[in-house]
From TrEMBL, chains A, B:
Residues 5-127 form the Ribulose bisphosphate carboxylase large subunit ferrodoxin-like N-terminal domain. Coiled coil: none annotated. This is Ribulose 1,5-bisphosphate carboxylase. Belongs to the RuBisCO large chain family. Keywords: Magnesium, Metal-binding. It holds the Pfam family RuBisCO_large_N. The keyword Metal-binding applies.
Length: 419, 419
């Protein structure tokens, strides 16, 4: 690990040679302009230039992935793909996430020399860890606050996502808390709407959570969606903490990595990082950012929990990609900075075995909305079926065999297992 | 204009019927989940559901634009494209840009029912204007501060972008200010680097600007790149204002729309909005956001100047798209909120006639880096050649005819006109 440079790995597609494309990337993002200017000395280039570290050729294709790409005279019709590693002197921008992004992403996606560009990975020197303290709670802190060990933290998303009154919501939460649920989150569509202001919601929900805790001895973790503008982040966070809440949720792309880092400066409870809008940055295979790179920035900025979709979800993402994301979030960064991956979307008890088989870990949050709340025998049975699904998975017992002794699991299979 | 709903226009591609895709969008982003849940009453759907307002069928294609799209049983192999307009009840999220984004973008880009989705336009009710005050300076305020009327504000970008010492930079700025230049901006790669801290830069550059103003009677506008984390935005802004600076620049995608709105709460000088990283959100034609929609959010959040690339630039963007962006930035929003479009990238005197012919306006900032600084007779001649280029354009005189009487323009054509 170079302590004085940032290393970025790109997937590149170009009608030119990979060498030329790599040089364009390095030039555009450091000392270059389209024509030589006075003052651009060799010494300056040496001290501040980005450097092409390696180029690995991959496949060729006949069609450019993105529009507006230039071709060289006498172009052979081929677009070359490759993995290109470029390093940037840290002193060009210092350990600043906002300015790092201008350097490693910046105008690169618009270059005519490229018909495809995707940021695959980032290696950041320790100076970033001195500036950004990362998750304060992470996996361990979240387990401690919920009192749940040796299995995934199981929870649900408030459904319907929109429209419940504060009274309806707190009744629902009270019921789910008494059913023994570990965790509930607001929907990302539901933050501080005029029809059910966050202040009222926090007060009513936390009263229901505390009453249930008095009865059951277990305090449910509720992630209040505090997404909002800068001034609201602090105000909303303080509302939650003052009422005894143990988690705040934000839409990371709505508040930006800077907003997340700001929240992390004063947050007293885990930050549940929702990644809605992320599809925009990643669904085109030759554009944007791979989650492997992005999750590092989210963790650096302080996300304790990070959404990663789920296996066999309602989204476009492949299971392989979801599994990669789960592994990425809990791989050490600066020797720690672990975030808890949040598995969700079309989940139910039956998605536990596949998730465990593919990841080999129980250090995840596993969330089911309809897959728990719409269980034929109600949410408590839904929650139980999820626990049973994971028990079966970890013990290596086929789900239908385990279900024969466990009616709640059996009914979950009957309801959700036909899809 | 509906005052109680937000309207979003999407370009959609789907293997299903456009009707079904539109219903998925409306359902996912309001009351839906993958299975019916208790409490999702008709009354709740009525009050909080998103509504499909119109569907306009466009062309069909044989290949899906994005990966991971599902097809219906018996799929005919066609992917249908259409313009789909969906409206959302404002009371689902209130006039909040961060929560608006979770609603109009959110998880939509990941839906399997869609093989393409692009947010084309947004119509926002006046409640947003009450919450976000928009540009404080805009076109008029910027003209007043620079004293430049009836022609574009002409300026340059510091080049080399990286590596000049504070002394070298202030010498350069002093020289350019004495040459009569209207405007200079930092490069987006250069904010507050360890080798030339912003505090030193601001002090040295503003001293040079003031000395030049004493000599020439005209004060150059310098846009200091203050991009950074939240606490730095205020500190950096205050540094600039205290030193007599008249503009701050931010990379909007680095600080997020929330960061921009935060800065706009206390800014005392125009905010120069750089859009690096934007390519990620827009270069794939069936993904992301069209600038027509995004620029509205930038203006709402307070951008006084907005980068739009330039005609015949080094970037992939078509001239038509650049022209659309220029028109969009200065079209009224809430009856005002105009931002000054910033035309840049591979610009020189010769790009003025095409820009004027296509846009019919002089209300732009026209920036040239190498195209001014590398002029054979130096930057003052470069600046003069740009002014002459616009004079010729507005008067409808062909550039080479005008150049016959103006050596600085003639030399610019000789240097840059061969490309």
């Amino acid at each position: 690990m170079k302590q004085d440079r940032v290393t970025a790995v790109y997937l590149v597609e170009t009608a030119y040679s990979l060498e030329r494309a790599a040089a364009s990337i390095a030039g555009e993002q450091s000392t270059g302009t389209f024509t030589a200017v006075p003052g651009e000395t060799d010494d300056l280039k040496q001290r501040h230039g980005a450097r092409v570290e390696s180029i690995e050729a991959l496949e060729e294709t006949d069609t450019p992935s993105l529009p507006g790409a230039k071709t060289p005279p006498g172009h052979d019709g081929k677009y070359r793909r490759g993995r290109v590693t470029v390093s940037f002197p840290l002193h060009n921008f210092g350990p600043s996430i906002p300015n790092l992004m201008s350097a490693v992403a910046g105008n690169l996606y618009e270059l005519q020399e490229l018909s495809g560009l995707r940021l695959l990975d980032l290696e950041l020197p320790d100076a970033f860890a001195s500036r950004y303290t990362g998750p304060k709670f992470g996996i361990e802190g979240t387990r401690k606050l919920t009192g749940v060990y040796d299995r995934p933290i199981l929870g649900t998303i408030v459904k319907p996502s929109i429209g419940l009154t504060t009274g309806e919501l707190s009744d629902l939460v009270g019921k789910l808390a008494r059913a023994g649920m570990d965790f509930i989150k607001d929907d990302e569509l539901n933050a501080n709407p005029p029809y059910a202001p966050l202040a009222d919601k926090v007060e009513a929900v936390m009263a229901a959570v505390e009453r249930a805790a008095d009865a059951t001895g277990k305090k449910l973790m509720y992630a209040f969606n505090i997404t909002g503008d800068y001034d609201e982040l602090r105000r909303n966070h303080d509302l939650v903490v003052k009422a005894g809440g143990t988690c705040v949720m934000v839409s990371i792309l709505s508040i930006g990595l800077s907003g997340l880092a700001y929240l992390n400066q004063f947050s007293e409870v885990p930050i549940h990082g929702h990644r809605n809008q992320w599809g925009m940055l990643t669904r085109s295979p030759l554009l944007g950012i791979e989650f492997t790179a992005y999750q590092k920035l989210c963790r650096l900025a302080g996300a304790d929990h990070l959404h990663v979709n789920g296996l066999n979800s309602k989204f476009y993402e492949s299971n392989e990609s979801v599994v990669r994301s789960i592994a990425a979030c809990s791989a050490p960064l600066f020797g720690g900075y672990k975030a808890m991956p949040v598995v969700s979307s079309a989940q139910w008890a039956g998605t536990a075995p596949a998730t465990y088989a593919a990841t080999g870990t129980v250090d995840v949050m596993h969330l089911a909305g309809g897959g728990m709340l719409a269980h034929p025998d109600g949410p408590a049975a839904g929650f139980e079926s999820m626990k049973l699904g994971w028990e079966a998975a970890v013990q290596g017992i086929p789900l239908d065999i385990y279900a024969a002794q466990h009616p709640s699991l059996q009914k979950a299979i009957e309801k959700y297992g036909k899809g």
